[in-house]
Amino acid sequence: MTRFTVNGQPVHYRMDPETPLLWALRDASNLTGTKYGCGAGLCGACTVHLDGAAVRSCQVPIGSIEGSFVTTIEALSRDRSHPVQQAWVAESVPQCGYCQSGIIMAVAAMLEKNPNPSDADIDAEITNICRCGTYPRIRRAIRHAAR
Ligand code: FES
């Protein structure tokens, strides 16, 4: 049994310890805001926070994070929208929307440690893939959230 905390709640998953965190979140906890894209750590659709850092949950076996704290898009903000989510709305970022929760999680983690990122910082940190090509709006929204 693997125990850790998801969105402030203790979880005990009776699953193979090699199960990727992505599938434990989606299938056992019904937290479907975290998306499956590539399953190979490349696209970032599955990004969540693990002890405050952005990670690609398809690459994290649940057995490796005993005692850790996981946050998903569903709990990024407890009351009103997180400033990054507000910026996403203000700049009308999403097109199909599928990848956006992962990108928002990656951006929120970046701004937590670097509140005023340069273009180079953004390029280095935000490597998520958006098939609709919303990258210019993503960049505007990051600037908006960083204000
Ligand atoms: Fe995890 Fe693509 S689904 S990086």
Largest sheet data: 5 strands, mixed
Backbone shape = globular
Number of domains: 2
Rounded radius of gyration (Å): 15 Å
CATH superfamily of the largest domain: Beta-grasp domain
Tell me the series of helices and strands, N- to C-terminal: EEHEEEHHHH
Proportion in β-strands: 5-15%
Query: What hetero molecules are in the model?
Result: FE2/S2 (inorganic) cluster
* Overall CATH class of the largest domain: Alpha Beta
Distance between the termini: 44 Å
Assign the CATH topology of the largest domain. Answer: Ubiquitin-like (UB roll)
Give the tally of β-strands.
5
- The number of helical runs is 5
Structural class: alpha+beta
Low-confidence stretches: none
EC number: 1.3.99.16
Protein name: Isoquinoline 1-oxidoreductase subunit alpha
Keywords: 2Fe-2S, Iron, Iron-sulfur, Metal-binding, Oxidoreductase
Domain 2Fe-2S ferredoxin-type: 1-76
3D structure, described in words:
By secondary structure, this protein is α+β, with helices and mostly antiparallel strands. It has 2 domains: 2-72, Beta-grasp domain (Ubiquitin-like (UB roll)); 83-146, DNA polymerase, domain 1 (Orthogonal Bundle). The protein has helices at residues 21-28, 83-90, 100-113, 119-125, 135-146, and strands at 2-6, 9-13, 47-50, 53-56, 69-71. The protein has a 5-stranded mixed beta sheet with strand order 2-1-5-3-4, with helices on both faces. Strand 3 and strand 4 form a beta hairpin. Helix 2 (83-90) packs across helix 5. The model has no long low-confidence stretch (mean pLDDT 96).
